[in-house]
Amino acid sequence: MASNNRNAAVTSSIGVGAVLAMIMSWTLKKSILWTLIHGLLGWFYVIWYLITKNDWTWF
């Protein structure tokens, strides 16, 4: 039972990261191609953006 809960949490986390990355990408670039690429990268793009960008205009 605990294994099923953990798998569900990991799947949900990956989904949230992808959606967040896609929203951030669309807000910045307005490009469907970049939005899809960043959606595939998910949390990696979100963390990279937070580390490298200082103008958090999407907040």
What does this structure look like?
This protein has 59 residues and is mainly alpha-helical. It has one domain (2-52). Helices cover 81% and strands 0% of the residues. It contains 3 helices and no strands. The chain has helices spanning 2-29, 32-41, 43-52. α1 (2-29) packs antiparallel against α2 and α1 (2-29) packs across α3 (43-52). The N and C termini lie far apart (38 Å). The mean pLDDT is 79.
How many separate helices? 3
Mean pLDDT: 79
**Rg, nearest Å:** 13 Å
Q: How much of the sequence is in beta strands? A: under 5%
Largest sheet features: none
Global shape: globular
In total, the number of domains comes to 1
Helix fraction by DSSP (H/I, runs of at least 4): over 70%
User: In angstroms, what separates the terminal alpha carbons?
Assistant: 38 Å
Count the beta strands: 0
- The secondary-structure class comes to mainly alpha
How would you describe this structure in keywords?
single chain; 59 residues; mainly alpha; globular
Quick structural overview:
This protein has 59 residues and is mostly helical. The chain has 3 helices and no strands.
Helix-strand blueprint:
Elements: H1 2-29, H2 32-41, H3 43-52
